[in-house]
């Protein structure tokens, strides 16, 4: 009996443990932190061996294969020891793919991947396909492979999940865009991070597809220097590139599947330039999967968006409150600020992952009237924008941040939570940060 050791007792870890047991492995799960109660219950119910708040080496180093949760860095001591012993350390995606014969659509990118994944899943479902939704989102891929009978999966894939693949190959791969993110995990080397994203296409064959943003500099540079076997499907906001999908006269035009598909941008349910690109990526996948044009148009206009991503919370005394807690890097916040049409009070801060705030400077000058810092250490933000806005206030709680923002905002303004940072200094994750923001706004 092969021994599977799972590192990390979160969604992907517990899902992998369940699948491993079902497939006849001797399974042991180990988490260096605390395991949440709901996951503990599942482990107990499934009679799985587990430990928390430690890694017992004699129970781990004897593994035949190890599934490492995406949150655990390669440089953690236990992972180093496993690699020195020559034990394969893979991701959940790589482990689960062996036990599923249905095709996957893999979606990655620095920003927009959640929206694109959910939009893609939405349009395929509306088109009558029974698709699972997994990866970085919802119930884990391994767990669904263990339980579900679906025709295929739409997977949101982070660079960490792609780091741990060996043979995984999506039938359709999507790269929404690439900008510096998580550089703390890639030795502060942007090229290593770009290479991690492009692992999504490394095992693709001639019958597979790579859908990508042709306007993206990092993507374009990689494509010049590297080859993929997959068929290329570019999308672009400029009308110059007549291959794949492009924009002309405020209309998305697609040349896929014999005969053009068109959709006016003003009919998309999601606003902002970045969402035009997310929609184009989803349209490309839908066409490759032969979804009817009418269904695609309807799906693009009735999709309701993603929680914590430019989510309109409330308008109080003509001040609009927007929750963009999912913006954990500057590039994501760039899109948020770019889509602001009213003077903005910007709530920003948290754990900085190596941000360069200069790219936000023109937008902050143009749109932001006041900054509320929400973090334990705000020095970098204060240094970057202290001289740009008239008002800057530092806070360490969401309630305080929202109350101050309310005082600073006048009729016709927007209060935008778009932190550009990770949340771990004050919150459990970006979802908790967003929920606290919504609660604080509702209590005003």
TrEMBL record:
One GO cellular component term: cytoplasm
Pathway: Cell wall biogenesis; peptidoglycan biosynthesis
EC number(s) recorded for this UniProt protein: 6.3.2.9
Sequence intervals crossing the membrane: none
InterPro entries recorded: Mur-like_cat_sf, Mur_ligase_C, Mur_ligase_C_dom_sf, Mur_ligase_cen, MurD
Catalysed reaction, written as an equation: UDP-N-acetyl-alpha-D-muramoyl-L-alanine + D-glutamate + ATP = UDP-N-acetyl-alpha-D-muramoyl-L-alanyl-D-glutamate + ADP + phosphate + H(+)
Domain Mur ligase central: 107-286
Keywords attached to this entry: ATP-binding, Cell cycle, Cell division, Cell shape, Cell wall biogenesis/degradation, Cytoplasm, Ligase, Nucleotide-binding, Peptidoglycan synthesis
A Pfam family per the record: MurD_N
Record-level Gene Ontology MF annotations: ATP binding; UDP-N-acetylmuramoylalanine-D-glutamate ligase activity
This protein's record includes keyword Cell wall biogenesis/degradation: yes
Subcellular location, principal: cytoplasm
Mur ligase C-terminal domain segment(s): 308-421
Group of enzyme by EC: ligase
Subcellular localization: Cytoplasm
PANTHER family found in the cross-reference section: UDP-N-ACETYLMURAMOYLALANINE--D-GLUTAMATE LIGASE (PTHR43692:SF1)
Function noted in UniProt: Cell wall formation. Catalyzes the addition of glutamate to the nucleotide precursor UDP-N-acetylmuramoyl-L-alanine (UMA).
UniProt-listed NCBIfam families: murD
Name of the protein described by the UniProt record: UDP-N-acetylmuramoylalanine--D-glutamate ligase
UniProt organism field: Flavobacterium akiainvivens
Name of encoding gene: murD
